Amino acid sequence: HYKNYHQNGDIDSLEWLREHLIVVIEFKKEDKKNIPEVWDKQLKAYLRESDRKFCLGILYDTGRLYLFKKQNNKLLRFSDEYNTKGEDSKTKELCLHLTDPYLNIPSFQYLLDIENLKEKDLSSRTIFDLDIISGVHSTQINDVMSNILRTMDKVGLTNQRGFEILIQILSLKIFDEKRNEKNNNRYLDFYITPSEKKYESLADENVQKLIERINQLRGDASGAYTRILKNNVFNSKNENHVKVLIEVISQFQNYSFVRSHKTDLYQLVFYKFATPFSKENNAQFVTPLPLIDFLVKVVNPRNGETVIDPTVGIADFLSVSYVNSNSKLDDGNIFGMDIDEQMVMLATLNMLLNGDGNAKIEAKSGYGSLLSKFDNEGGILELIPSMNKNGNWDNRPDEKKLKKFDVVLTNPPFGEDRAFTPKKDNDTDKAVIECYELWNLYSNKGDNNSDTGGKKKSSKKQATKIDLGVIFLENAYRILKEGGRMGIVLSNSIASIDSHKIARQWLMDKMRIVAIFDLPANVFAETGVNTSIIVAYKPTADELDKLKEQNYQVFAKDIQKVGYEVKTNKRVKQFVPTYKIDYKTFEVQIDNGGNPMLDEDFTQTITDFKQWCVSQEQVLQDMFIKEK
Question: What does UniProt give as the signal peptide span (predicted)?
Answer without folding.
Answer: none
